[in-house]
């Protein structure tokens, strides 16, 4: 079931992101900054194959009554001619002729476990298109993981945080340390990143 849009914070929506009728991400998306504030998923060992070349958009961010599966923009346009999809989300065209990378939340080759990743918006740093701010360039990027054994019990966890520049170094940390760091960069409450003693 897709969560309702009436989340407490303005300009944010909770999404259960689905592809090929299978859920992949639980995401808190900021429709003003047009970035995912965080996205969590359960990952399995991948078969490789490299990075996905297509850019998928979220129909739920255009019209809640549309198909709930993520779709390639060109495919979505076939059934919705003349509709602009970028009012509340970033589009592939926003990144063309810029030095910025779209990024990806679910890279191939992971082991079984849980993962969460997020971005901290920066108020005055944007990708500009046609003199309009289109996509916020995050100030910080963070990542957290929790590896599980075959019975589903946590066996290893950790996190990392970095300034969003090509000159920065990544700071590895425990989940407890990551939570403390996240509290420094946001006015929102930082609750439990994972349940079931993943921080142990």
Automatic annotation (TrEMBL):
Domain DNA/RNA non-specific endonuclease/pyrophosphatase/phosphodiesterase span(s) in chain numbering: 21-191
Domain ENPP1-3/EXOG-like endonuclease/phosphodiesterase: 22-200
Record-level Gene Ontology MF annotations: endonuclease activity; hydrolase activity; metal ion binding; nucleic acid binding
Keywords noted in UniProt: Endonuclease, Hydrolase, Magnesium, Metal-binding, Nuclease
Superkingdom: Eukaryota
tRNA-binding among keywords: no
Name assigned to this protein: DNA/RNA non-specific endonuclease domain-containing protein
SUPFAM superfamilies, alphabetized: His-Me finger endonucleases
Pfam families: Endonuclease_NS
Cross-referenced PANTHER family: ENDONUCLEASE DOMAIN CONTAINING 1 (PTHR21472:SF26), ENDONUCLEASE DOMAIN-CONTAINING 1 PROTEIN ENDOD1 (PTHR21472)
Family: Belongs to the DNA/RNA non-specific endonuclease family.
The keyword Isomerase is annotated on this UniProt entry: no
InterPro entries according to UniProt: DNA/RNA_endonuclease_AS, DNA/RNA_non-sp_Endonuclease_sf, Endo_G_ENPP1-like_dom, ENDOD1, ENPP1-3/EXOG-like_nuc-like, His-Me_finger_sf
Cofactor: Mg(2+)
Taxonomic lineage of the native organism: Eukaryota, Metazoa, Chordata, Craniata, Vertebrata
């Amino acid at each position: 079931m897709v969560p309702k849009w009436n989340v407490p914070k303005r300009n944010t929506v909770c999404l259960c992101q689905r592809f090929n009728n299978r859920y992949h991400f639980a995401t808190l998306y900021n429709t003003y900054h047009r970035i995912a504030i965080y996205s969590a998923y359960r990952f399995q060992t991948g078969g490789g194959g490299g990075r996905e070349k297509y850019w998928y958009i979220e129909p739920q961010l255009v019209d809640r009554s549309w198909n709930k599966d993520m779709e390639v923009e060109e495919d979505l346009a076939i059934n919705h001619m003349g509709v602009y999809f970028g009012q509340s989300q970033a589009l592939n065209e926003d990144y063309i002729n810029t030095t910025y990378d779209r990024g990806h939340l679910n890279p191939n080759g992971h082991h079984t476990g849980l993962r969460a990743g997020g971005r901290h918006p920066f108020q005055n740093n944007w990708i500009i298109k046609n003199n309009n701010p289109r996509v916020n360039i995050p100030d910080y990027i963070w990542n957290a993981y929790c590896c599980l054994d075959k019975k589903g019990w946590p066996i290893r966890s950790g996190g990392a945080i970095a300034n969003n520049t090509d000159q920065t170094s990544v700071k590895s940390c425990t989940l407890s340390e990551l939570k403390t760091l996240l509290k420094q960069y946001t006015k929102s409450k930082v609750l439990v990143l994972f349940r079931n003693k993943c921080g142990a």
